[in-house]
Design goal:
It contains four helices and seven strands. The protein is of the alpha+beta class and 153 residues long. The protein has a seven-stranded antiparallel sheet with strand order 1-6-7-2-5-4-3.
Protein backbone atom coordinates (compact mmCIF):
# COMPACT_ATOMS: atom_id res chain seq x y z
CA UNK A 1 0.00 0.00 0.00
CA UNK A 2 1.46 3.35 -1.07
CA UNK A 3 1.75 6.33 1.22
CA UNK A 4 -1.24 8.64 1.41
CA UNK A 5 -3.69 5.76 1.13
CA UNK A 6 -6.22 4.78 3.76
CA UNK A 7 -7.76 1.34 3.38
CA UNK A 8 -11.52 1.12 3.88
CA UNK A 9 -12.26 -2.48 2.84
CA UNK A 10 -10.34 -5.41 1.38
CA UNK A 11 -11.52 -8.56 -0.35
CA UNK A 12 -8.96 -11.05 0.96
CA UNK A 13 -10.98 -13.98 -0.31
CA UNK A 14 -10.63 -12.82 -3.93
CA UNK A 15 -7.01 -13.94 -4.30
CA UNK A 16 -7.98 -17.34 -2.90
CA UNK A 17 -10.92 -17.77 -5.30
CA UNK A 18 -9.34 -16.27 -8.47
CA UNK A 19 -6.06 -16.02 -10.37
CA UNK A 20 -5.70 -12.22 -10.62
CA UNK A 21 -4.01 -11.44 -13.93
CA UNK A 22 -4.29 -7.64 -14.13
CA UNK A 23 -5.29 -4.89 -11.72
CA UNK A 24 -6.81 -1.49 -12.44
CA UNK A 25 -7.46 1.53 -10.24
CA UNK A 26 -10.95 2.94 -10.74
CA UNK A 27 -12.76 5.92 -9.31
CA UNK A 28 -16.34 5.56 -8.07
CA UNK A 29 -19.41 7.72 -8.62
CA UNK A 30 -20.74 8.15 -5.09
CA UNK A 31 -23.27 10.34 -3.32
CA UNK A 32 -22.31 12.56 -0.37
CA UNK A 33 -23.70 10.26 2.31
CA UNK A 34 -21.85 7.29 0.78
CA UNK A 35 -18.55 9.15 1.00
CA UNK A 36 -19.23 10.12 4.61
CA UNK A 37 -20.04 6.53 5.49
CA UNK A 38 -16.84 5.33 3.75
CA UNK A 39 -14.76 7.87 5.65
CA UNK A 40 -16.05 6.22 8.81
CA UNK A 41 -14.41 3.02 7.54
CA UNK A 42 -17.63 1.12 6.97
CA UNK A 43 -18.06 -0.87 3.75
CA UNK A 44 -18.02 -4.44 2.48
CA UNK A 45 -16.83 -5.66 -0.92
CA UNK A 46 -16.83 -9.38 -0.09
CA UNK A 47 -19.83 -10.31 -2.26
CA UNK A 48 -19.36 -7.63 -4.92
CA UNK A 49 -18.53 -7.99 -8.60
CA UNK A 50 -18.31 -5.73 -11.65
CA UNK A 51 -19.85 -5.96 -15.13
CA UNK A 52 -19.32 -4.10 -18.38
CA UNK A 53 -22.69 -2.79 -19.62
CA UNK A 54 -23.21 -0.36 -22.53
CA UNK A 55 -19.58 0.72 -22.54
CA UNK A 56 -19.55 1.44 -18.79
CA UNK A 57 -18.41 -0.62 -15.82
CA UNK A 58 -20.87 -1.07 -12.95
CA UNK A 59 -20.13 -2.45 -9.49
CA UNK A 60 -22.85 -4.58 -7.88
CA UNK A 61 -23.44 -5.75 -4.30
CA UNK A 62 -20.92 -3.45 -2.61
CA UNK A 63 -22.49 -2.68 0.75
CA UNK A 64 -22.05 0.84 2.11
CA UNK A 65 -24.24 1.21 5.21
CA UNK A 66 -26.41 4.33 5.50
CA UNK A 67 -24.72 7.35 7.05
CA UNK A 68 -25.68 7.54 10.74
CA UNK A 69 -26.24 11.31 10.77
CA UNK A 70 -28.04 11.22 7.41
CA UNK A 71 -31.66 12.15 6.83
CA UNK A 72 -34.33 11.10 4.32
CA UNK A 73 -31.83 11.62 1.48
CA UNK A 74 -29.65 8.71 2.65
CA UNK A 75 -28.52 6.28 -0.05
CA UNK A 76 -29.57 2.69 -0.81
CA UNK A 77 -26.82 0.48 0.72
CA UNK A 78 -26.65 -2.00 -2.20
CA UNK A 79 -27.30 0.23 -5.21
CA UNK A 80 -25.18 -0.36 -8.35
CA UNK A 81 -22.31 2.12 -8.60
CA UNK A 82 -20.58 3.29 -11.75
CA UNK A 83 -16.80 2.86 -11.94
CA UNK A 84 -14.69 5.50 -13.64
CA UNK A 85 -11.99 4.19 -15.99
CA UNK A 86 -10.43 5.41 -19.23
CA UNK A 87 -12.25 4.39 -22.42
CA UNK A 88 -9.40 2.15 -23.64
CA UNK A 89 -9.32 0.37 -20.26
CA UNK A 90 -13.08 -0.26 -20.44
CA UNK A 91 -12.74 -1.59 -24.01
CA UNK A 92 -9.84 -3.84 -23.02
CA UNK A 93 -11.73 -5.21 -20.01
CA UNK A 94 -14.85 -5.78 -22.13
CA UNK A 95 -12.79 -7.88 -24.56
CA UNK A 96 -11.20 -9.91 -21.77
CA UNK A 97 -14.44 -10.51 -19.85
CA UNK A 98 -16.06 -11.90 -23.02
CA UNK A 99 -13.54 -14.75 -22.88
CA UNK A 100 -14.72 -17.79 -20.98
CA UNK A 101 -13.90 -17.84 -17.27
CA UNK A 102 -12.87 -14.20 -16.76
CA UNK A 103 -14.57 -11.85 -14.32
CA UNK A 104 -14.00 -8.46 -12.70
CA UNK A 105 -13.38 -8.72 -8.97
CA UNK A 106 -12.95 -5.79 -6.56
CA UNK A 107 -9.81 -6.30 -4.47
CA UNK A 108 -9.73 -3.30 -2.14
CA UNK A 109 -11.46 0.01 -1.51
CA UNK A 110 -9.38 2.92 -0.26
CA UNK A 111 -8.93 6.69 -0.19
CA UNK A 112 -6.01 8.17 -2.12
CA UNK A 113 -5.47 11.89 -1.51
CA UNK A 114 -9.04 12.20 -0.25
CA UNK A 115 -10.66 10.48 -3.26
CA UNK A 116 -12.32 7.06 -3.02
CA UNK A 117 -10.68 4.48 -5.29
CA UNK A 118 -11.34 0.81 -6.01
CA UNK A 119 -8.67 -1.67 -7.05
CA UNK A 120 -10.31 -3.91 -9.64
CA UNK A 121 -8.78 -7.21 -10.68
CA UNK A 122 -9.31 -9.21 -13.85
CA UNK A 123 -9.57 -12.73 -12.51
CA UNK A 124 -10.00 -16.26 -13.74
CA UNK A 125 -11.72 -18.65 -11.36
CA UNK A 126 -9.65 -21.27 -9.55
CA UNK A 127 -10.64 -24.89 -9.45
CA UNK A 128 -10.68 -26.80 -6.15
CA UNK A 129 -7.36 -28.50 -6.91
CA UNK A 130 -5.75 -25.11 -7.65
CA UNK A 131 -6.78 -23.91 -4.18
CA UNK A 132 -5.38 -27.06 -2.56
CA UNK A 133 -2.09 -26.64 -4.45
CA UNK A 134 -1.80 -23.01 -3.28
CA UNK A 135 -2.42 -24.04 0.34
CA UNK A 136 0.15 -26.88 0.10
CA UNK A 137 2.73 -24.48 -1.37
CA UNK A 138 2.12 -21.94 1.40
CA UNK A 139 2.51 -24.62 4.09
CA UNK A 140 5.72 -25.88 2.48
CA UNK A 141 7.13 -22.34 2.54
CA UNK A 142 6.24 -22.06 6.24
CA UNK A 143 8.01 -25.36 7.00
CA UNK A 144 11.12 -24.19 5.15
CA UNK A 145 11.11 -20.86 7.02
CA UNK A 146 10.71 -22.68 10.33
CA UNK A 147 13.63 -25.01 9.50
CA UNK A 148 15.86 -22.07 8.55
CA UNK A 149 15.04 -20.30 11.83
CA UNK A 150 15.83 -23.49 13.78
CA UNK A 151 19.22 -23.83 12.04
CA UNK A 152 20.17 -20.25 12.96
CA UNK A 153 19.70 -20.90 16.68
Amino acid sequence: MATGERLVAANRKARHEFFIEETYEAGLMLTGTEVKSLRGGRASIQESFARVEDGEIWLYHMHIPPYEAGNIFNHDPLRPRKLLLHRREVDRLYGRVQQKGYTLVPLRLYFRRGIAKLELGLGRGKRQYDKRAAIAEREADRRIERAVRQRRR
